[in-house]
Amino acid sequence: MHDLISAQMEGIYFPITIREFGAHVEFRDLNEGEHVIDGVSVKTMLLSHPGNCLSYRIEYHGRSICYVTDNELYLPESPFYNLAYVEKLADFVRDAGVLITDTTYTDLEYESKVGWGHSCVSQVVDLADRANVKALHLFHHDPDQYDDDIDNKLEVAIAMLAERKSDVVCIAPAERDTFSF
Fold it and tell me: 3-class SS at 5?
């Protein structure tokens, strides 16, 4: 991690190198596990994405938020679908107050993007409902999508949750939105 950040701070990208920082900066490479920092629990889990990508579950005073981005939840009919992985991820996010997760594609768009490392609406809805999260925040949208496309994904997700009679609240956060949970 130190080498990656240092490379991004070299002169061709940024006017100040990491050696010139006025602060002492420490780097810690993370893998799956649990870390406690000043009473805050930070759990990590490797995700289904080309290369390494971690999800985070942060817990403090009985509240929890999960950040799961760059994650591909394959459709059940896919030869790459892994029920054990889906169940492990569901356990990781179970009963979270908020699940912020990769919802890059509609189900139709996903058909031509299998293996790209990102999820579609139906699988995100399934995960949130299966894991009994309180709020699902749709995140990590395709750069070619417009606000109307994101609104459509939100409408589809809400309808899918209603069809399941799920209590999960679903939103697609916009710039400057604030939330309490």
Answer: helix
1 lies in which domain range?
1-30
Angle at 153 between CA 150 and CA 156, to 5 degrees: 150
Instruction: Say if residue 71 is in the same domain as residue 135.
Output: yes
pTM of the model: 0.88
* pLDDT 10s digits, 149-173: 999 999 999 999 999 999 999 999 9
How many angstroms separate the CA atoms of 103 and 110, rounded? 10
- Residue 179 is assigned to a structural domain of this protein: no
Please, is 51 exposed, middle or buried when counting C-beta atoms within 10 Å of its C-beta (0-12, 13-18, 19+)? exposed
Task: Report how far residue 172's alpha carbon sits from residue 60's, in angstroms, rounded to the nearest whole number.
Answer: 24
User: How far is residue 113's CA from residue 78's CA, in Å, rounded to a whole number?
Assistant: 12
Q: Tell me if 65 is assigned to some domain.
A: yes
